[in-house]
Fold this protein.
Amino acid sequence: MVNRMKIILSRKGFDAENGKTASPVMPDGTMLSMPIPSEDNIAFDYYGYKGKSYFEIWKELKSTDRLEQYYCHLDPDIRKDNRCIPDVARPGHFVKELPEGWKPIFGQADAAETHLENQGVTVGDLFMFFGWFKQTEEKNGKLAYKRGCIDAHMLFGYLQIGEIVRGEDVKKYPWHPHSEYFHPGYNNTMYIASDKLVIDGDDTGLPGAGTFKYSDELVLTMPGQTKSRWKLPDFFKEVYISCHSADSFRPEGYFQTVRIGQEFVVSEDSRVSEWAKHIIENNIDL
């Protein structure tokens, strides 16, 4: 008997309240989910992409605003090459430094974690991360949103659960914001990525976590609609999606997502698993 897995659609990165702008689809197609501002003690300047810090990217995209929040909450931590520490000896240069023993991890706590527990999320289940994105281009050496670009919810990465860590064990991963030092929240939990991605018993040969390169099939939002109105395959009407009901599928043909909620857990179904497998295999950024 094949063990089916649940898919968890997980909203992460910049939004209208946190960051107040869209995460960028970089000119090369990289889906760069921007970590939300927070009171953690890791600065935006600690992370970067191709020699430009996340704070610089944020300033360029929000060029008319004065940004004062320098610290961020990088979660999920699934991009291996985003550490980008300024080199004090060489201004304008950066040193990449991956923490010893680094693994892809997603953390959750408080009511959002209780929701995952109540939905029976466990080892083998698969997070599919999405967020608010816009396409960008370089203009005079600076990043800017493309005029008339797609403004939508898009999938940007995934993590299959290999281990669930709580309590004192979170101290094993001190670089992550949900280690006890950074996040002493109620019900604090870490989801550690599996070594390899297994879909309903099928070893895909892919890593247990990763990020995507842009393609149109990563866009969840229905064309011409607001971000929260999605186009989903028809078989999603036949499965349970937490925080939603049958009425979420509107006569106009879109799925209306709730405005509040971080994770939407989809019940076990081979068609949903195949949908996730197709998305990952076609769009993973190796």
